[in-house]
Amino acid sequence: MLISVQALRAFAAWAVVGHHFMQIFFGFQARGPLGQLFIDKGAVGVDIFFVISGLVIFLSTEGKALPPTRFLLYRLFRIVPAYWLYTVLMALLVVFARPLLPDQTLDWNHLLLSLLFIPTQNPGGYGFYPTLNVGWTLNYEMLFYVLFAWALLFRLQVRLWVVAALLFAVCQTWTGLGWISEFYRSDIVYEFLLGIGIGMLYRRGWFRSGFYRPLLGIGAALMAIYLLPPAPRLLAWGVPSAVLVISCMSLESRFEHNRLLKLLGDCSYSVYLMHVLVLSMGGFLAHRYGIHLYLMFILCVIAIAAGSWLSYQWVEKASYQWLKARFEGEVFEKLSRQKY
């Protein structure tokens, strides 16, 4: 993956961390202009993730004869192990350490649906959130993967339009008919299309390396996010997120050998999954023992950074490689049997 995109993934993940820090530690009560910024705009990290997801899925499948089933399996190998691990950890905390998560309630049926990426009302009564609350975004991701798998049956040039048609059918028509959950009736799903479009333009050579123009693009995108109201989300946060991605990609020549940025991007998924668990424990300890909240936040950041690296190496990377090798080994064995 492009290092510039990896850097932006890291930025998006840590923006969400800041947003939830203000929620868990301060109950979304602003502590100065920076705190208010994280309260109001920190959630834009999700929109950046969605645009990047569309981009990465398009680029990673371009030019490959990848059957839809195999594509879906590889995405499950990449997403599921870490998500299931942190969902189970969240469930265990709710059961055995309830003071850490006083607003959470565990329902076994809801837990099962969460693990299967099926959106349903959280038993705590605050919306369509899975057991691991941040997993709501993965429900959208899984829908996108399923629809993109269908698009792989079509030639590269029309995949954007196939995915767009399928998204509209599912998220507008089917939700309106009551065939699937109203959860999917959100304009945020179309941010994946922005990423696919960026990937198509990138492969056509429309992006030129630069410095000042990309910086102006980044500044304009951040200013739009800051000034515009958050609705409609696709226009207020989705389009500026796409401009951020394009601008960062135009700076790739300045980042392409930066190992730190690559590492930060690699760890961003684990940062996203684990940070609420760490912040919840940190917030509880800070209020229980009178520890300065910002000192505890620094300790939480260190714990999240270290934990996400370990999680990437020993959970995400290791499980993906093992599952992929096992699957490809079985496929090879079946083909060998058929041949002989």
From TrEMBL:
<feature type="transmembrane region" description="Helical">
    <location>
        <begin position="291"/>
        <end position="312"/>
    </location>
</feature>
<feature type="domain" description="Acyltransferase 3">
    <location>
        <begin position="4"/>
        <end position="310"/>
    </location>
</feature>
<keyword id="KW-0808">Transferase</keyword>
<dbReference type="GO" id="GO:0000271">
    <property type="term" value="P:polysaccharide biosynthetic process"/>
</dbReference>
<protein>
    <submittedName>
        <fullName>Acyltransferase</fullName>
    </submittedName>
</protein>
<feature type="transmembrane region" description="Helical">
    <location>
        <begin position="160"/>
        <end position="177"/>
    </location>
</feature>
<feature type="transmembrane region" description="Helical">
    <location>
        <begin position="82"/>
        <end position="101"/>
    </location>
</feature>
<dbReference type="InterPro" id="IPR050879">
    <property type="entry name" value="Acyltransferase_3"/>
</dbReference>
<dbReference type="Pfam" id="PF01757">
    <property type="entry name" value="Acyl_transf_3"/>
</dbReference>
<feature type="transmembrane region" description="Helical">
    <location>
        <begin position="42"/>
        <end position="61"/>
    </location>
</feature>
<keyword id="KW-0812">Transmembrane</keyword>
<keyword id="KW-0472">Membrane</keyword>
<keyword id="KW-1133">Transmembrane helix</keyword>
<feature type="transmembrane region" description="Helical">
    <location>
        <begin position="134"/>
        <end position="153"/>
    </location>
</feature>
<feature type="transmembrane region" description="Helical">
    <location>
        <begin position="183"/>
        <end position="202"/>
    </location>
</feature>
<keyword id="KW-0012">Acyltransferase</keyword>
<feature type="transmembrane region" description="Helical">
    <location>
        <begin position="12"/>
        <end position="30"/>
    </location>
</feature>
<feature type="transmembrane region" description="Helical">
    <location>
        <begin position="211"/>
        <end position="228"/>
    </location>
</feature>
<feature type="transmembrane region" description="Helical">
    <location>
        <begin position="263"/>
        <end position="285"/>
    </location>
</feature>
<dbReference type="GO" id="GO:0016747">
    <property type="term" value="F:acyltransferase activity, transferring groups other than amino-acyl groups"/>
</dbReference>
<dbReference type="GO" id="GO:0016020">
    <property type="term" value="C:membrane"/>
</dbReference>
<dbReference type="InterPro" id="IPR002656">
    <property type="entry name" value="Acyl_transf_3_dom"/>
</dbReference>
